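Suppose a colleague, Dr. K., hands you the sequence of a protein chain of 101 amino acids and asks what its three-dimensional shape might be. Before reaching for any lab equipment, you can write down a predicted structure in token form. Begin with the sequence itself:
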Amino acid sequence: MSESVVFERTCTELEQATSFDSLSARGTIRLALKSAGLDARDVSSSQMIVVVKRVLPAELKARGVKDADSVCSLIASRIAGLTSTVSGASAEDVFRRLGGN
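The predicted structure, expressed as tokens, is then:
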């Protein structure tokens, strides 16, 4: 399974900002995405920022992270400039390529 660059970067940032190991960081981000109805393979940077600001703080608090809100603000600021590199993820993109447009 290939995840989006935004997912990978967010996991790395969470790992660096907390005592989480890679597996814990990835699992926590996946749970936050699932709560928001999103998937790690095709999440965009704007979607991820909303998840980090609105959903992730509760996930971190449940895992005993102190000052979860500021951790999430830091992560959101670090991923804000990322561009989504999920190419061909939408049905429209697939049909556009098949149609030659």
